[in-house]
Hints:
This is serine-type D-Ala-D-Ala carboxypeptidase. This protein is of the alpha+beta class.
Amino acid sequence: MSxxxxxxxxxxxxxxxxxxxxxxxxVAALALTLAPDTPGALLPQSVVDRPLVTTTPIRGSFPVxxxxxxxxxPPVSAEAALLLEVSTGTVLYAKDEHQRRAPASTTKxxxxxxxxxxxxxxxxxxxxxxxxxxxxxxxxxxxxxxYTLEELLHxxxxxxxxxxxxxxxxxxxxxxxxxxxxxxxxxxxxxxxDSHFVNPHGLDDPQHHTSAYDLALFAKxxxxxxxxxxxxxxxxxxxxxxxKTWHNTNxxxxxxxxxxxxxxxxxxxxxxxxxxxxxxxGMQLISVVLGSSDRWADSARLLEYGFSAFAVVELARRGDxxxxxxxAGASSDLVVRVMAADRLAxxxxxxxxxxxxxxxxxxxxxxxxxxxxxxGELEGxxxxxxxxxxxxxxxxxxxxxxxxxxxx
Length: 408
């Protein structure tokens, strides 16, 4: 604009409309140029709330969470029990789940877990005199026999061989005491604070204990390994090294629809115990019963309760596109796909499925945007209470426009 003097006063001559348009465009471009490269604060909820459509529950993955009243459920004779939905880590039923108890051969779940994590399946293992001479349930190993570690896993989990447990412990941990130290470290890593182990097989010892809660943690972790899941799901197995056939002690593999494992246990101090897993229509449950007068009926009752009374509602899977957002400082028609960085799901009583919803909260985006850059959150609600949230990220990079395009 130009300035001229008239009769002692300054007067302004306003620019033409064309000049004014150019100036305003330049100011807008300068604002975009100075805008931060990272997303700003979350926009007001009223602007960005976008409820996701909750469809038929997708059954079918960990801090542990509990349903509202986990003490309600079917009657069981077990002194301690727990029912866990695996994919969401949700406790559906619990009875004295932190009570420290003798675990008997359910101990072998963490023994097998450590063998898989710390050993090599094709390693050759020679049975020691100590291993061959251990008392209790047996895989009938003899001193000097050689098996692969994978074969010994079957001897451990199917016939519940205490001899196989000691052979594995000596091979992986160097000694029984060394392996027990590994067991205790791994238990703490998994958040199993009710457990302390002194042997790999579970024969009664005053210093050897765990809980229904801890056993569920061990089983949930172990079942993520395909080798473990395959071993405990077999009804019989023949070790070719010595032509020995072992049969699984878990009767549920024959009698319960969808049963997939895991381990029995019995001693005078522990009573009858069973950690069991079953899957139906993509929903996986783990039940634990300790000190039961009928472990088969108790386990079947808990598992059936889980399948019939609960559902898994999945709001997003990792990589799902949940929104598309325009990006300031990019070409006018450019949007970025917003993707879920993790899975968001919840297990609820079937009557509450309709109360589950998701809310997308997005940040205002300015170019440049990097692929995988956090751009907001997806929060899950059960009724009006949030139960979890996951980050949302940009699905692809968006470069900033050249300066001359930002001006014009």
